[in-house]
From TrEMBL:
Coiled coil: none annotated. This is N(6)-L-threonylcarbamoyladenine synthase. Pfam families: TsaD. Transmembrane segments: none annotated. It catalyses: L-threonylcarbamoyladenylate + adenosine(37) in tRNA = N(6)-L-threonylcarbamoyladenosine(37) in tRNA + AMP + H(+). GO terms for molecular function: metal ion binding; tRNA N(6)-L-threonylcarbamoyladenine synthase activity. Keywords: Acyltransferase, Metal-binding, Transferase, tRNA processing. InterPro entries: ATPase_NBD, Gcp-like_dom, KAE1/TsaD, T6A_TsaB. Residues 36-150 form the Gcp-like domain. Gene3D superfamilies: 3.30.420.40. It comes from Limnochorda pilosa. GO terms for cellular component: cytosol.
Length: 256
């Protein structure tokens, strides 16, 4: 299983070994640097990961890719690359939600996992998972499903009965979320957050490959052309189009 990750500042590729009757194993992982260079470094990173794993094209069973949310440009590049690769090699494609992969990466570090990616106006793309020790995070209990939320909305279920235990913040929004916990609004939850681990700050391509392998075994692969990015928000172009539509009374056309 090949895994491609380009949703954030640190992307890369990985190779996971499919093992019938056992959990998949990570064979190799190569990090590809910052967001601005995903288009230039993703394929070379894939070649290096395959070389390190000792795997050639004929041994690849499927491709997994982070489908979003995250960087608009990074997601678009990653999904387009994965679709072209899977289509050209005649392989199934496994889309992986960024938040699911982050939850998988955190694992059982805490009782609850809160993957967060920065959004605008103090909000986050995130979700709240009751941490599972095995299986696909998509099947874990999710009191707050993936979406665009404020910190208060993400943590509100933890204030209710039956929600005892500590939680772990993971993802590129974790640092900003930690700062919110130091304010008056977040102080009630501050004692329940586990210490931040730098390894949980970015999504690793290995997590994408491993979760993709689990989903492939569960029959959740798709045809390459069926996979589309998941943004959980309007793109800048859509926001501009909406503003233009409001400006000209809903008429479409070219403004010159």
């Amino acid at each position: 299983m090949l895994g491609l990750e380009s949703s954030g500042r640190l992307g890369g590729t990985a190779v996971a070994e499919l093992r019938p009757g056992a959990a998949p194993a990570l064979r190799a992982e190569h990090l590809a640097g910052v967001e601005a260079t995903h288009s230039e470094r993703l394929m070379p990173a894939l070649e290096r990961a395959m070389e390190a794993a000792g795997v050639d094209r004929g041994e690849v069973a499927a491709v997994a890719v982070t489908a979003g949310p995250g960087s608009y440009t990074g997601i678009r590049i990653g999904v387009m690359t994965a679709k072209a690769l899977a289509f050209g090699w005649g392989l199934p494609l496994v889309p992986v939600l960024t938040l699911d992969a982050l939850a998988w990466q955190a694992g059982a570090v805490a009782d609850w996992v809160v993957p967060v990616l920065p959004a605008r106006r103090g909000a986050y793309f995130g979700a709240l998972y009751r941490a599972g020790r095995q299986g696909d995070p998509a099947g874990w209990e999710q009191p707050v499903p993936p979406g665009r939320w404020t910190p208060e909305e993400l943590l509100r279920p933890l204030a209710g009965p039956g929600a005892e235990g500590r939680f772990c913040l993971v993802g590129e929004g974790a640092e900003g979320f930690h700062r919110w916990l130091e304010t008056g609004a977040g102080a009630a939850f501050q004692a329940r957050v586990v210490p931040e681990y730098w390894t949980l700050g970015h999504l690793r391509p290995g997590a994408v490959a491993l979760l993709g392998a689990v989903r492939l075994a569960a029959g959740q692969a798709a045809k390459p052309m069926e996979v589309e990015p998941v943004y959980l928000r309007e793109t800048e172009a859509e926001r501009r189009a909406a503003g233009l539509e409001a400006h000209d009374g809903g008429k479409s056309g070219v403004v010159g």
